[in-house]
Structures are given as C-alpha cells and as structure tokens.
Design a protein that fits this description.
alpha/beta; globular; 3-stranded parallel beta sheet; about 10% strand; two-stranded antiparallel ribbon; about 200 residues
Length: about 200
C-alpha cells in the first residue's frame, strides 16, 4: 500500500472517480454539524519477506486467494484516506482493517497511517485471522493468548483496543472489542443464531 499522502493527484483523482461514496445524516445531538469518513472490512493481505519465511505452501495458497477476494480493500482504503486528508476530516475504521496479522500488514499500517487523525474499532481479524496451514504470526485462542495477541498490535492503533471513546462536538463514539463474540457468550445468546440474524439484517 503506497502512502496515500504521496500518491500523485492524477492517481488519487482516478481513485475518487471509482469511489462509491455514501453520505448519511445522523441526528445524534451534535452541538455543531460535522462530518467523518468511515471505512470497514478492508482486509489487507500484505505479507513481507519475513512472513514468507514462516509460511508453508498451504498457507501461501490461502493468502493468495484471500488477496484476490479483497483486492479492492487496498485501493478503497487509500481513496478513503485521501478523501479524509483533502477535506481535513477525521477517519474512522470500524474493524477488519487486516485480514490476518502479518508483519507486512503491520508495516503498511505504520507507514500509511502515521500522523493521521483516526479512530479505530477492532474486528475479528486484526490479531487472529489466519486460515489453514502455518501462519506468519501465531496467536492461540486461550484468554492468555488473546491478551498477548492484543498487546502485540495495540501500538499500531491510535486508541485502546478493548474499549475506547472519542467525543466530537458532543457526540460520543464508543469502540468495543467484541472480536471473540464474548458479549454473545456472556449474555447466553446462541452464536450461530446471532450470526444468522446479523446476516439477515444486512
């Protein structure tokens, strides 16, 4: 992912032309009307040379297939960042910025988001999204593993991953990490039923 700030105007204009920008007006009690730019589920699939040294053939094939599925995420996020920068707007990402934790994804995030005004809500891929085979970065599913994984990526983001809030003109935006569906489990919801309900509402 090239640094959005360094992309020539001709390229960024072409990205804008392809953007499907949707505008929503929300009555949330703001003291003064304001705008933000929001993106979600961009699923970056970058791997570095250091990552490749750790991947087996099965995982490389899986990563290549995921890259095809989410190819638009790189250009889409780049266009959104450019739009936020040009219009001097805060940028919100609401989860699954990565498709899986890798050094390539982390390096791209450090480079492309440096110095930006942004707020983040974690998805279920940021620190445990690898598929079959041997992952580049291994994170298990125990409580201890989750804490280790979260700490490994926390420094990449502008706010605390477990729970954070940001107030803009009297509107309080709250980000909560429910990437392991702990709220559903804690409150006794059936995981499959909850997921089916969510899909039906989309």
């Amino acid at each position: 992912a090239a640094d959005a700030a360094a992309v020539p105007a001709s390229v960024s204009d072409a990205l804008y032309a392809k953007m499907k920008l949707k505008t929503y007006k929300v009555k949330a009690g703001a003291k003064v009307p304001f705008s933000i730019v929001q993106a979600s589920d961009t699923h970056w699939t970058f791997v570095s040379a250091a990552d490749m040294e750790r991947l087996d053939e099965k995982t490389i094939e899986w990563q290549a297939s995921r890259s095809k599925v989410f190819a638009g995420g790189v250009l889409g996020l780049g266009a959104a960042l450019l739009y936020a920068k040009r219009n001097k707007l805060p940028f919100f990402h609401t989860g699954d910025l990565f498709d899986f934790p890798s050094r390539g994804n982390m390096e791209a995030l450090k480079r492309d988001f440096a110095g930006r005004d942004w707020f983040f809500s974690c998805g279920n891929h940021e620190y445990h999204g690898w598929g079959p085979g041997t992952p580049a970065i291994v994170h298990g599913n125990s409580k201890e593993d989750r804490e280790t994984a979260r700490k490994a990526v926390q420094g990449l983001y502008p706010n605390e991953i477990p729970v954070s809030s940001r107030v803009i003109n009297g509107v309080n935006f709250v980000a909560i990490d429910n990437s392991y569906y702990l709220f559903e489990k804690r409150h006794g919801y059936d995981k499959q039923r909850t997921h089916k309900s969510k899909r039906e509402k989309i």
